[in-house]
Structures are given as C-alpha cells and as structure tokens.
Amino acid sequence: MPSAQRKLAPYRRKRDFAKTPEPSGSSRRRDRSAGLRFVVQRHRARNLHYDFRLEIDGVGVSWAVPKGPTQDPGVRRAAFHVEDHPLEYFDFEGVIPRGEYGGGDVIVWDAGIWEPAKEEDPGRAVADGELHVDLHGEKLHGLFVLVRTKTDASGKEQWLLLKKRDDDAVEGWNPEDHPESVRSGRTNDQVKADPDRVWRSGEPAARAAVSLKASPVSSDELAALDALGSGGQWDVFGRTLKVTNLDKVLFPALGRQKPVTKRDLLRYAAEIAPTVLPYLTRRAMNLHRYPNGADSKGFWHKQLPDHAPEWLPRWDNPDADPGETTTYLVVDEAAALVWAANYGGLEWHPWTSRVDKPDRPTYALIDLDPGEKTKWADLVMLAKLHRDALEHLGVSARPKLSGRRGIQIWVPIRTGPTFDDTRAWVEKLSKTVGALVPDLVSFKWQKDERAGFARLDYTQNAINKTLVAPYSPRPAAGAPVSTPIDWDELDDKQLRPDKFTIRTLPKRLAERGDLFAEVLDVKQKLPVFR
After folding, report:
1. 137: which residues sit within 8 A by CB, 6+ positions away?
2. Which of 119, 273, 412, 453 is the most buried (most CB within 10 A)?
3. Cβ-contact 479, 265 below 8 angstroms
4. β pairing state of 94-96 and 104-116
C-alpha cells in the first residue's frame, strides 16, 4: 500500500500552507489498539456539506456528503470521494480563511470509532468501490455502506452512502436536526463568531494547534508543582516539562518578605498564562534571561536552543542575515510560557508585530523613561499630558507601569503602517508634549547627555525592538510586575511603578480584571497631526 505521506500528496498540493491554518500532514504515531477513528465535520465552505472521514492506512480517507449522513435506511446520500486528509485534521474545529481551499467554518459534527463490517482490507475495499463499516459515534451508530457509482473523465469518483436496516436505524432521521458539535456543543455560527483554535500553517503536527483560549491552571497542577523536590517532571497545560532548581532564589527579598524562588516564578507563569497569552500569541519572543537570578548579570536570548522540546511553538525568520537569530520562541500556548520561565526568562519581550507580517506593527509604543533627576510626580504628569493629547486626537491607548521606574503607553493600531510610520507618529506626539515641559524632558540618545532628565523614547518603534509585556516580571527585589493600570489610577498618591509583584498581582487581576484588554480589541488608524 502507498505510504501515508504519498497518499497525502494531493491534499498538500491543494493547500497553500503559508496562508491556510490546517495541518500539513506530518507523520504521527498513535496507539492502534484504541481502534480506527472516524469523524464527520460539518463544513460551510462555498456550500454546506459534511466531510465523512475514516482512518485507513494512516490517513483520513474522505468523502464530501452534501446533505449529510443519516440514520434513515430509506435515504440514499450522494458522496464524493475527495483527497485523503491527515489524521491531525480529525480534531480540527475552527475557521479556514476565505479564498483558500475549503475556506469556511468547520465543526466536529460527529466522531468515534469504526470497524470493517466484513473481514476485509479497508484500503482494498475503497479501491474496489465498496466498503461496509460499523460506526460507533456520538450520533451515528450501526452499519453503513459506501458504494462507488461512477468515475468521470477527470477521475472524480461519485459514491452513495447508505444506512443499513439494523437496530440503530431511525426513520426520518435528519442530520440538520442535530447541528451541534460533539466536541464543543457549539454550532457552526458560534464557532465562526468565536473560534477556540486555529492551525498554524506548515508546522509539524506536534505544534500545529494554536489554542486561542487557554484554560486556567488547575489546583491539582499547582499542587503537583509544590510536591516536587528540587526538580522533576511537571505535567501542566497538557504538556510534560522538565523543571529544575525549584528552590533556587531568583529574586531577592523585598523588605521583610521572603525571597522569590524559581518555584514561585513557575507558579506565577502558570497562573498568569491565560491572561498574558493573547499579548504573546503569534509574536516572536525576546527573552531577558537571568538563570542565576535577578542579582546577577542578565543577557538577551533570542535564538531558540536546539534542545528545546519539539512541541514548543517557534518561528523561523526568513529575513535573518548571517549571524542573526534564525528561530524564535513563539508563546502560542500556556505551557510555552512556563518553559520560558524555567529557562531563566525573567522578562518577556514579544515583538510588536506578528510573525505573519513582521514588518507591520500592531501597536505604537510610548516609553516614559525617567532620568536621575526625574521625580515620580513629574513622570505621572508626563503620562497625564500624553493621555490628554491622545484624548484630544481621539486615540484609544492603555498605560502600564514598567515594573521598574517608568510608565509605558501602548496605542493599538490596524495592521498597515510601517515601523517608520509609527516611530514618526510617536516622535511628533512626544515632542509636542515635551515642548510643554522643556525643563523635564530630553530627547538625547545617550543617557549621559540627558542631564538627568526624562526621555520620551519613541525609538522602540522598530522591528525586533520591544517593550516588556504586560504582566511580565522584572529583575528586581520582590519580583515586581509590569502592571496595566487605569488612567484614573495616575491620581493615586500610593501608586509606584514597582508597586505590584508576582505575589500581589493575581489578587489585583481577580479584582480588577485585565485592564489592558483594549489593546487587543481596538483597531484604529493613527490620525494625522494638524
């Protein structure tokens, strides 16, 4: 029999994996003792149809059934034999981009185990044009038969799918009366409006799935972390991570508090992951690593190491020059953030552009960087002046504490402007603000040339330059966190840039919610200055 990879050649040819978020059919071994799988996907592409797929010889042998399978033995369904699909596609539920092969929304309408209804070689039976199957699904049960009726000049095969008369037959059974997914309980409309997952194009199966909504870490998972000694295997977010040196102090104590250990950092990373994940997904990550703790000298680490686990999401930069970083970590799933923390990544710096369009930012960044002479009250005033200027321009933006000494403002934008555009826009905005308080601000590049004044830094608006992610720790005593705030919190006399730590942030998040979410939801054009 042809290998699974050869059988998938037509599937591969029909899909542009640079655009279509479906699995490319990388080989995956599975326990055959669990039985042969089948799936029926309700698929709204150019026309509504049901994709009926049987696991045979390592691939999903597939038929498109326009009116869907039925339990009614008196109904014959037309079925069109299409190219084999990879087994990874069996669990896919989401949206395929319009304009691509199969573009539309897909749900897992039914799934289960099947077995040949006769003692036969299923692959040979398909080739011969008649296959009898016994289905054990959530909706479909009992004996069915697929029969080839004709093959046209182009080689396209038309079949019939029939339900046999047995104890599972139901007269008048209509698949459209059962529209919900057996995987999520949702309809196609609901999945289209709010998909849970996408598939990354052209990736190996181990990292093809991208979860858009990470579930919270469970109490059992956190208890398992606490139960480990100095290290071991930790099962979290569906992955098994090797964690080490859990009792090592990474952040010195702040005041009378206890120092922060690596175990504490991993716990925080797991707790914050579902909230921070949307700010990291599909973005290359620059890690600021401090493997010996915040008291030691840190260093930037961009290249994903060769020993990184195969499942870890990544991006190969096609524009990397010799000697530059070629492969970046991409935190597309919660376990990847925990891996980064275990790897000594005390700070998380995602790019402001996504990997599909690395030269097009999705934020414009304003960095209020205090000098030696800058008082906290002066920095707050500069933040308020920027707030007023942005409100005057009708621009939505969100502030966050840097976690060290500064304040940062992120302006969400529609994808389109270049980094040159955003840098020029922020420069004009900040110089307009700076002109109001010239005795507080310097735009000099070198720190020793600023005379201790604050810098309104617009230069971070460049490819592969970053500001620390919201909710990222910072390398200082007590493990302060870069924390989103409301604009009105600038009036709080108790506010400080390093006020919140990995020990206090989860409670604040539970009480206030994600105050930075607007940068994910708002897509706006930057107005022209008059």
Report:
1. 38, 40, 110, 111, 112, 113, 182
2. 273
3. yes
4. antiparallel
